[in-house]
Amino acid sequence: MTGEIKNKLEKISKILSESGIEVYSAKELKSYLYDETPPSLGLKPTENVLITKPRNTNEVSKIMKIASRERIPVFVRGGGTGLSGGAVPTAEGLILSTEKMKKMEIDVENFCAVCGAGITLRELIMNAEASGLSFSPHPGDETATVGGMVSTNAGGVRAMKYGVMRNYVLGLEAVLPNGDIIKLGGKLIKNNAGYNMMHLLIGSEGTLAVVTEVVLRLLPPFRKTATIAVPFKTIEGAIEAVVEILRNGTIPLALEYIEREALEIGEKVSGKRWPPKDEANLMVIIEGRNEDELVEVAEKIEEICIGKGASNAFIALGYKEQRDLLEVRSLIYEGMKEKVIEVLDVSVPPAQIPEYVKRCNSVAEKMGFKVVNYGHAGDGNIHQHPLKTEGWEEKYEELKKTFFRIARELGGSITGEHGVGIVKKKDLKEHLSKAEYELLQKIKRAFDPDGILNPGKVVDL
Amino acid sequence: MTGEIKNKLEKISKILSESGIEVYSAKELKSYLYDETPPSLGLKPTENVLITKPRNTNEVSKIMKIASRERIPVFVRGGGTGLSGGAVPTAEGLILSTEKMKKMEIDVENFCAVCGAGITLRELIMNAEASGLSFSPHPGDETATVGGMVSTNAGGVRAMKYGVMRNYVLGLEAVLPNGDIIKLGGKLIKNNAGYNMMHLLIGSEGTLAVVTEVVLRLLPPFRKTATIAVPFKTIEGAIEAVVEILRNGTIPLALEYIEREALEIGEKVSGKRWPPKDEANLMVIIEGRNEDELVEVAEKIEEICIGKGASNAFIALGYKEQRDLLEVRSLIYEGMKEKVIEVLDVSVPPAQIPEYVKRCNSVAEKMGFKVVNYGHAGDGNIHQHPLKTEGWEEKYEELKKTFFRIARELGGSITGEHGVGIVKKKDLKEHLSKAEYELLQKIKRAFDPDGILNPGKVVDL
Question: Domains, chain B, ranges and CATH?
Fold first, then answer.
């Protein structure tokens, strides 16, 4: 650390402490330097950082004003569940953890929750349900925070029916890099007053402003569900069935594609059994008003799947049966974490999944890689897990580039839900046209002319 | 017209004609100078404009390149159904009409439509239905164009259940003021690759880029509907019932609030009768899998409404009965168009509608104004129609300002769906904080540094 920055950080630490804002050294809170990005990608956080924990928007504003005056980088941290290195500090400066921002108000008359950035998904769900409402999408790990989920526009398995995080944000309060507080939207379902800064901040990964408070739409309580597990011989059969299920008029809560190998890993970790499986499996979760309706829809789905080559279908109606299936699905990543290089999250037009997966697998095989696939078939967002193999370090970059090129050729995006962060920053530049990339840079400069907010992420100044 | 601009326009006209792009004078197409903004607001279009009708994105790019080189303003025009003067030319230059941009592709496998900007809502609905799918929201007049509806983030009566235009845009192609073509999103449900320029362009009212092509999400075909008309004595009773209906777990397709006087106008124009009405009426449209389900839900809604003070409820299940009710509702505006000063579209937290309406009515009464109200109760978007009265010209500005101040105090927005255009440009500046307004200006400059695209709308450079 240069003497100058050291002095600045000491000075900032003193000012913040005197204002009653907690400040820690990175030595005390080592885990704050990392998120859930697979270690294989070898991110090296800068250790010379201070960690600060403001309790509300005004304290965040105070921190940003000082940081801006001193030109000190600030890295915003939510639950640390990201997979793209978005929360990893890349320069000497401050980590701003939102964990103490715990405002939580449920407005039952206006069907919304007003949450501090540090409220976790679990807290949000529990508070909504305790008020007789629900937060319907399930955008990821339940320790993720509202601020993080909004900043990354988190997706998850229910996006098919309930959309992504963006669809639930009605209003937000944020602090600009210069410390100015802005309030966008509100408890409002419709708002067309000027360019939509709110939707621009959603998914900007904390590089334009610090999201401090969010108004989220809540919905009526959840209905009954059924879970249907269907084994197919081929990915084509499975995806054709997906298209047909949707055309038939049912939008399932979740429509997941899972390869045999992934299920076997999930079974091992969970200790639960998956019903008869094959090479390409679908897990369909449907929601209905009552058991009769669920059975009727489930049987129609079974019929469609058998028409597309499935040998049978396992329909789970009971709570425990369904929970067991979900557990197998949820624990797949846990079981292969150590072997995985990266969790890719390419998004393609849904009907193009088979072509995308087949072309990628064929490239991978030629290059000596094994890739395990599962993901959100209904919305075209597939998670590819390339596994470590001998000498992978030398050739992985080429594999990834090829996957992204194939995605582009099929009209896809290099990231459907995990975001750009550090790990896809170079790829983003290649993915976009020059005009598009320059617009991103101009936007970054409009919000953060000195580049102090999350530098090294998404786009360069 | 100055000689310089005259020469420039003549030169541009020649170049475009030689490229096979149609060009007209404003004398030939006088109606192109106006949109549906009430004449009382006295917008004065600039008549010295040329009207050009490109057929595709490349032709739009060609036009913008020339306009940019010559620094000539360009006004983009869709169906001309806007109510805020967004399509009215405010300076000598070009009107770019999208009416010849009629690309139309339905992708049944990926549940989407790829539309040229000039495709009308009616054409979109018909094409989607002919392919066994549906375009579920109904964002306004069926002669509105896709480009216009995206550029204004159109709302409409079904936003409660199906959301606004923004929720259906998966991808778009647009031309920047300098002629560069950008492609954002695609046939993709999830996309987190960089700042979301697509959502920034949605609702930017043609002031940042010219939207030339849009990928819109389609859904499975529509189900059966029932329409329930419920008369209440007071607006409080009606809105309490709205909250209770939603809490009960039903999200209606539409949940409209209509005052007695508005219904009487609609009856007169349509020649159809509304079932027993009272001061404050609800029109609830529900969607269900079959008639049994509809009757069950409708009866539950009736029970809730009676609990909140309604005397009875009229449940229409037949096609004709429902169409008649819709016709009364649809023709209200037609019947008072001549008398209306402006169609306001404030959006407030839904449960605040009664307070908002009562406070506004009380102010209006004191100032000698009569205001007729109806609107989208379920999503907090109320249409207030102040009627012309003696000497209204002198005092209307104050009335509007007061309404907007009340909206702000209740956490509302000055425009829920009609947008800013010309007519709310000054109000927007007052509605936003200095920091927020400056961000809008920076965004405008990032896209359109010379201010040639729709100048005089939304925000000043």
Answer: 3-100 (3.30.43.10), 104-217 (3.30.465.10), 224-334 (3.30.70.2190), 336-442 (3.30.70.2740)
